[in-house]
Automatic annotation (TrEMBL):
Top-rank taxon: Eukaryota
Keyword Transferase assigned: no
Protein species of origin: Erythroxylum novogranatense
Residues of the Fe2OG dioxygenase domain: 209-309
Pfam families, per the entry: 2OG-FeII_Oxy, DIOX_N
Keywords: Iron, Metal-binding, Oxidoreductase, Vitamin C
PANTHER family per record: OXOGLUTARATE/IRON-DEPENDENT DIOXYGENASE
GO terms of molecular function: L-ascorbic acid binding; metal ion binding; oxidoreductase activity
Family to which this protein belongs: Belongs to the iron/ascorbate-dependent oxidoreductase family.
Protein name: Fe2OG dioxygenase domain-containing protein
Length: 362
């Protein structure tokens, strides 16, 4: 699968600190009278048209995971089917208060409303800094920039937060706890759907020290949305990603070679499989390419929490899911923190990181 975006201009090499060099896309987008986008953000090829706008994602009722044995088994079956057929699904009845999600989203909006100078304080210098805010994805290697600002926070096992706006830290702490719990329950269910003991991942990967990252993405209104890109096609590095948004669409995923829109049910979370679940399941469940497109009607904000193994873990296919003859391990192990660094220091491009550790079939 090749990416559909190609560059037209080649701005000079950016520094690691993108805000100092380029400023936020929010600042540019809010310029009065902006009617076209600068070449720095212009792609020559539009994103492929959506092929199947009506297709909708599987829906999983989270509350049934703790239902009676019949309900539990039914939802495990649904989880397995969703993971295998889509790699993406929506979760309802998850028990995370809607008021908490809304407050977290509006607190992130307030963060992006800070001045550039205030945000630069959180810019970070290295991709593994636990607090990092910036624009695009990695401006030091990109030829054309993405129409996106971000804030990335390592929230587990150590909790890191910004202190502006007021109250952000407390909200994030509660949000991280609730999303982390939901993520662990989902992982147990998914593990069971693979035919493994529900606690297999927890034990084998020492998930007491699991690494969670929160990524807040801001995609301001764009006067030429068909020429810009919020985030290019990519897969996520972790085990699972749990995503919510401010009610404005833009997330698309590749399903059966067609891009489909994700239209989340209100008060649901969108879950997708990351590269490390693909590795652990020896390719039975695959991480799925997704991207974020932009629009000229409303600013979009998405909040993604990536749940992964501890940073020093080396994940390999579960021995019970491999067979030396018929299904040998298809990926070599790499330390999780090195895998993240590999993704974050390169261009965000398809499944290029996973491809590096795939063992070719003989
Ligand atoms: O904004 C979105 O919906 C997608 C974000 C995303 O893919 C990511 O943060 O990895
Ligand atoms: Fe993603």
């Amino acid at each position: 699968m090749s990416s559909t975006v190609e560059s037209v201009s080649q701005p000079s090499q950016a520094s690691i600190q993108p805000l100092a060099k380029f400023g936020c896309i929010k600042t540019l987008a809010e310029k009065p009278g902006l009617s076209s986008i600068p070449p720095t953000y212009t792609f020559t090829k539009n994103p492929d048209p959506i092929s199947d706008p009506e297709e909708s994602l599987p829906v999983v009722d989270f509350s049934l995971l703790s239902g009676n044995p019949d309900e539990h088994n039914k939802v495990i079956y649904q989880l397995g089917k969703a993971c295998q057929e889509y790699g993406f699904f929506m979760v309802v009845n998850h028990g995370v208060p809607e008021s908490l999600v809304k407050a977290m989203i509006s607190s992130c909006e307030m963060f992006f409303d800070l001045t550039e100078e205030e945000k630069r304080e959180y810019e970070g210098k290295d991709v593994m800094d636990p607090i990092r805010c910036g624009t695009s994805f990695n401006t030091s290697v990109e030829k054309v920039l993405f129409w996106r600002d971000y804030l990335k926070l390592f929230i587990r096992p150590e909790f890191h937060s910004v202190d502006k706006p007021a109250g952000f830290r407390e909200l994030l702490l509660e949000y991280s706890k609730r999303i982390g719990e939901m993520g662990m329950e989902l992982l147990k269910g998914i593990t069971e759907s693979l035919g493994l003991e529900a606690c297999y991942i927890e034990k084998a990967l020492n998930m007491e020290n699991s690494f969670h990252i929160l990524v807040a993405n801001l995609y301001p209104r764009c006067p030429q949305p068909e020429r810009a890109m919020g985030m290019p096609p990519h897969s996520d590095f972790g085990l699972l990603t749990l995503l919510t948004q401010n009610g404005v669409g833009g997330l698309q995923l590749l399903h059966n070679d067609k891009w489909i829109n994700v239209n989340p049910i209100p008060n649901s979370f969108v879950i997708n499989i990351g590269d490390h679940l693909e590795i652990l399941s020896n390719g039975k469940y695959k991480s799925v390419l997704h991207r974020a497109v932009v629009n000229n009607a409303a600013t979009r904000l998405s909040l993604a929490v990536g749940i992964g193994p501890p940073l020093d873990a080396v994940v390999s296919p579960a021995p019970d899911l491999t067979d030396a003859e018929s299904n040998p391990p298809a990926y070599i192990g790499m330390k999780y923190c090195e895998y993240i660094r590999l993704q974050q220091t390169n261009q965000l491009k398809g499944k290029s990181c996973l491809d590096k550790i795939r063992i070719p079939k003989i």
